[in-house]
Amino acid sequence: MHKWFVWPVITTALMTLLGGCSPQKYSANYKNGLVYCSESDPISMNPQLDTSTTTADATAHQIYDRLLEFDTATGRIRPSLASGWSISDDGLLYRFTLRQNVKFHTTSYFTPSRTFDASDVLFSFNRWRLPQHGFHDISGGYYPYFESLGLADNIADINAPSPYEVEISLKQRDSSFLANIASDFSVILSAEYGDVLMSNGIPERIDRLPIGTGPYQYADYQKNHYIRYDVNNDYWGGTPASKALIFDITPKSSLRLAKLMTGECDAVAFPARVDHQIIREREDLVLAEKPGLNIGFWAFNTQRPPFNNPSVRKALAYAIDKNTLIEAVYFDSATRAKSLLPAASWAYQADAQDTGYNPVLARQLLDEAGIEPGFTMSVWAIPVERAYNPNAQKMAELIQRYLADIEVEVNIVSYDWSTFRRQLRQGNHDSVLIGWSADNGDPDNFYRPLLSCDAIPSGTNRARWCNPAYDEILDRAIKTEDVDIRKALYFQANELLFDKLPMVPIAHAYRYQAYREELNGMVINPYGGVRLGGVTKQRD
Questions:
Q1: Which DSSP letter does residue 356 get?
Q2: Could you report the per-residue pLDDT of 477-508, keeping only the tens digit for each?
């Protein structure tokens, strides 16, 4: 019945939505390029300034490179702009040998006079690391990923012994350091470009008109419409086969599907769960899937009464049936979350404690906490589709019904994505349905950005929860390379989180990528943004 009813309705509606759209609206180079249908606008053209998937997709692997990167198949760290590295016996000194003859982009607004060297690494790292750096406060001085990890605080010094060597000294051993350096956000900018912009009095352009060393270079951006990239013919990793790249910004998943079916888009972000069967049944389309390193959760603003009371938070957690939420929102594409870590993590705890559905206990806990029937609270729902929560509005509506059963009234709140994020960072929410997609495979990439004290100012700690005992556990975990010791410490963190419950883990979702069958090299990157530099398209 599902196939018979949904398919004709969707097809008719989507063809109507397409009305007059044409691939040629972007560029005469379309036939030689790739078109990727993105779900929203990036916050910036520099992923140092943002942690959203949208920004990472549009920038991290298209425009920029990092010293190191993750192998998407094995998860192992491999060379990128650094051709090699070594670590001192005490784990405090990292030495990187840099790749030579790497060219920065030549665009209509900048022509480099030299190739990549150590000064670019120092410029890029010191920008987010040092408040006194000339570019630190440009574009707001907000570096959420690095701030949430406290990474700058643990770096004692960065220096360049030679033009193609960089040494980074740490104050304390950090077993997750290389993984953080390989993340989407540790991109390398051009120091020369920065100097030119600063001397011309226009330093803010570094984040709007980007220059990197990646496979594609920025050409044009029309907000709410598209981002256009030209190929980097001098790319050190080999010139991409596709001569142009376009991000078609298409918020509605139904319209993204329509563009995919008609060939206006070659690949799409976040194919809707209800469309998966349609995609699978078409011979000209491919639906790839992979277990996701992510977590969808319901976070309580612990700095707002009564959500500063763990008993109130537990009551709300017991009021919802997570299995029903997962069935209604994710269908068969997610597993129930007991803790922050998915099963793909080496520190996953299969027997972690979990809250169950118990509305009687929920109401009892509220009564004991002095919360009268008729209490009103807000549930904020992210306005964009994400792998960790493909339909937060629907989930919020279900939670609204569950809480009504325990005599708690819920107002569902949402804004446009930029306003939503700004309001969240200001702590104006009672609770929020949101999530996190890991930037690397280290467990610290879940525990620290989501719930550490340092992650509150950065905005990634949506619960605004600070517990020194929790932070101390995390610090002990990254000071050792012993996996068994680290695992035991993360299990200890899980116990503390269950006891205090600043957030309710809900689901670990599969990641999906839909694309046309003529694409080759289109793979799901479990460690961050989409990579399109190695994707080719068969020509008719």
A1: -
A2: 999 999 999 999 999 999 999 999 999 999 99
